[in-house]
Specification:
By secondary structure, this protein is of the alpha/beta class. The chain has 24 helices and 14 strands. It has helices at residues 6-18, 20-36, 40-43, 46-53, 60-65, 90-99, 116-119, 128-143, 160-169, 190-201, 207-217, 229-240, 255-270, 281-284, 287-300, 306-316, 323-330, 347-353, 355-365, 456-464, 481-484, 492-501, 582-587, 597-602; strands at 70-75, 104-110, 150-154, 176-179, 387-391, 394-398, 422-427, 430-435, 445-453, 472-476, 506-510, 523-528, 545-549, 554-557. It has an eight-stranded mixed sheet. The longest helix is centred in the N-terminal third of the chain and has 17 residues, at 20-36. The radius of gyration is 24 Å and the shape is globular. 57% of the residues are buried. It catalyses: 6-phospho-D-gluconate = 2-dehydro-3-deoxy-6-phospho-D-gluconate + H2O.
Length: 604
């Protein structure tokens, strides 16, 4: 294990100094709350307690007598999301496993869990980002009963894990672990899936052919196998030490997956206040673990959505990190993984090649992450430089050894690229994120006339009419958090990919989001200030020359805005309950601060 890299040390120190007052206030609050809720027989009157354990059956005597720790389960189960479908079976099993160590389990509550894969390109996507705030509040409601000594979080996908984490951090005096359901087995190749999508965009494949291809990719229970936001969440939990080591990608329904879930229940029962190894969430999530999550994101080319989520959940712990911090880290963090959409292979191949145990080991050895953090398992993060396996029927961990496939996973001494997967671009059009990991360096710089749209569907129509068959920077504005909830614009990827394949210099600039599955097209996303309210994108006009350069970090236009009036957004849309989310849009802060109305209103 090497000495900590100077840049990692410097950025962590800056974040710590910036966060000193808010972090101290947070920890003081958690200490007071922990003391106040330490004994539910004191915190709750007999009538309250009786309500709380009335339906617990054989566990009722144990809960009433505080015979052992009571674990509150917050579940995001539903059977529309393939990743969350396995969670339906977890609570009954977890109750049995808790009794094995003298503990009990109760489902404390459930949160909504929407799938961006289902809502891509539909009105429902405008609810997606703010579902994170709803999930955080639902988590808080679930834990408000003061019945629990620890928390088991059942969630995997895009906004769900950040939402669970934000809500859980406000009860940070409770030990908390995250439970994965694992990745679905590999379906058709990602290259084939991408090929059919582009053929459909060109009108060369039918809807039936497209659906057949998609169904062969997303085909069973488990998280989608590409390295998008859901799997980036699982990586992040490992790098922060909030789940058992290496539990992220083990397939559902396997003996190893069941062994990890059972061991997680046992471990959670062992780290409560009543024992001698108390590890509350507030102590686990600090400046160092947040830097680790960021470094892991950069080293693996993870989802750009975490440029929004990391600042958001960090604020819930009293820590303030921004895009400048992330970009500075990216300059020194090597790219260790190539997983689709940054490569040809999926997370199952990544896991077989060495997985997160390999990544953690390499980053520790290079001094790029903090080893001295409080984790839910082991003495420090070194316990996460291992991979789980079954020695007969016994769950064990072992060194992952060398990379099993250097086209997918490489060591820090021989990386795919000398730096991480994100660049900050800024200029007179604002600040934005550029995901370099999936984009060839030949496309890092694009300068061209822009074509301005206020709706992603208009881009597809212009493409169909042949109006974009040229060098062009497509600007899609009024897609920010305050405008329409900042939907992902992943439906643009096949269209823009076709144009790029035709030999045109193409890029996207938007105040919206791209998916964690965004691919080969250069894109400046999360542009802030957003167009609504007079951000620079509101002043652009068709034909203005725009320059996007990840190499120099530039996002600018040569157009003179003097005398121009900002474009206005169309009327706010109703339907699919979007009107109910008006308060979230009205109160949202910037993407760089986490795009949260809830955190802004709370003054965090």
């Amino acid at each position: 294990m090497s000495e900590l890299h100077d840049t990692v040390h410097r950025v962590t120190k800056r974040i710590t100094e910036r966060s000193a007052d808010s972090r101290r206030s947070y920890l003081d609050l958690m200490e007071r709350e922990g003391d106040r809720h330490a004994d539910r027989n004191v915190a709750l009157a007999c009538s309250n307690l009786a309500h709380g354990f009335a339906a617990t059956g054989e566990d009722k005597p144990s809960i009433a007598a505080r015979a052992g720790p009571n674990i509150g389960i917050v579940t995001a189960y539903n059977d529309t999301i393939s990743a969350h479908q396995p969670f339906g079976a977890y609570p009954p099993q977890m109750k049995v496993w808790a009794r094995e160590v003298g503990a009990t389990c109760q489902v404390a509550g459930a949160t909504p869990a929407m799938c961006d894969g289902v809502t891509q390109g539909t009105d429902g996507m405008e609810l997606s980002l703010f579902s994170r705030d709803v999930i955080a509040m639902a988590t808080a409601v679930s834990l408000s009963h003061s019945m629990y000594d620890a928390v088991a979080m059942l969630g995997m996908c895009d906004k769900i894990v950040p939402g669970l984490l934000i809500g859980g951090l406000r009860f940070g005096y409770l030990p908390t672990m995250f439970f994965s359901a694992g990745a679905m087995p590999t379906g058709i190749s990602n290259k084939e899936k991408q090929r059919v999508r582009q053929l459909y965009a060109e009108g060369k494949a039918t809807r039936a052919q497209l659906l057949e291809s998609e169904a062969a990719s997303y085909h069973s229970p488990g998280v989608c196998t590409f390295y998008g936001t859901a799997n980036s969440n699982q990586m992040m939990l490992d790098l922060m030490g909030l789940s058992l080591p290496g539990a992220a990608f083990i397939n559902p329904g396997t003996p190893l997956r069941q062994a990890l879930t059972r061991a997680s229940v046992h471990r959670l029962a062992a780290i409560t206040r009543s024992g001698n190894d108390y590890r509350p969430l507030a102590r686990c999530v600090d400046e160092k673990s947040i830097v680790n999550a960021t470094v892991g994101l950069l080293a693996t080319g993870g989802s750009t959505n975490h440029a929004i989520h990391i600042p958001a959940f960090a604020r819930a712990a009293g820590v303030h990190i921004d895009w400048s911090d992330m970009a500075e880290l990216s300059r020194v963090v090597p790219m260790l993984a190539r997983v689709y959409p940054n490569g040809a292979d999926d997370v199952n191949h990544f896991q077989a090649a060495g997985g997160l145990g390999f990544v953690v080991r390499e980053l520790l050895d290079a001094g790029l992450i903090h080893h001295d953090i409080t984790t839910v398992h082991g003495e420090n993060l070194a316990a996460y430089a291992l991979e789980p396996w079954l020695d007969g029927e016994t769950l064990s961990w072992r060194d992952p050894g060398p990379s099993g496939d250097e086209t997918i996973l490489r060591g820090a001494a021989n990386p795919f690229a000398p730096e991480g997967g994100m660049r900050l671009v800024e200029g007179n059009l604002g600040r934005a994120c550029f995901k370099t990991s999936a984009v060839s360096e030949d496309h890092w710089t694009v300068e061209a006339p822009c074509a301005v749209f206020d709706d992603q569907h208009d881009v597809a129509e212009a493409f169909a009419r042949g109006e974009l068959d040229r060098d062009v920077i497509v600007v899609v504005r009024f897609q920010g958090p305050r405008a329409n909830g900042m939907p992902e614009l992943h439906k643009l990827t096949p269209v823009l990919g076709v144009l790029q394949d035709r030999g045109y210099r193409v890029a996207l600039v938007t105040d919206g989001r791209m998916s964690g599955a965004s691919g080969k097209v250069p894109a400046a996303i999360h542009c802030t200030p957003e167009a609504l309210g007079g951000g620079p994108l509101a002043y652009l006009r068709n034909g203005d020359i725009v320059r996007l350069c990840a190499e120099s970090g530039n996002l600018s236009t040569s157009a003179d805005f003097a005398g121009r009036e900002p474009a206005s957004m169309g009327e706010s849309q109703h339907g699919t309950s979007r009107e109910l989310f008006a308060m979230f849009r009205a109160g949202a802060d910037s993407a760089e601060h986490g795009a949260s109305a809830m955190l802004a209103a709370a003054g965090l």
